[in-house]
Fold this protein.
Amino acid sequence: MKRSVRGRGVSGRRRRKIWPSAPSLRRAALLGVSATGAAFASQAARPTPSRLELEPDLLARVQTLAEGLHQEVVLCLVGHVRGDVAVVSDFVMPVPRLSTPTRSSFDRCPRKTLASWHNHPLRGGPGAAVTGFASASRARRLCVLSETDIHTAERLRHPFVVVSVDAATWCWWTLAEVDRFAEQSIAPAPPAPERIARNGRTASWALPSTTGRRAGE
């Protein structure tokens, strides 16, 4: 049954307003719930991207930051997913709570974040006054996930984690790897050899097998 009320339009003539009945409202609500559920199901059915690609302009920006920063900073990398590739084109910096050469604490990233980025400063910590080959070797040793990094990434659940050390060195991991590291107590966790960039290597790689050491080994 439909109820109606009368009101006047702008012309002064009476017009009839039709209000939906309770059964109609219930049907609309059910349709809305179904549509929402379908949208969530469709989103859940999307394949998780297995490759990470940083656009050149963004890579230049974050690597410039990594070269100049002496304290740890967190960035939220955003962009879009194209098939099985997460293409990152920009970043958001969350509100900092703590930032030292070896530790950082920041507010949460937006939900649309594809990868969390932070740096492990090459300079400013113990043994920082190194150059040349020693510097490159130290940079590679710093491109790992610490136990704290692993627990943080596991909690945040972003598809990828990126660590930069200096302007030439950065590496990345998938969330599946992070979960495995946490489950098997692997820390520090190095990247797969194909996923550490040094001196301008490509910024996109296919998902290879993971590597790592158990804590204490």
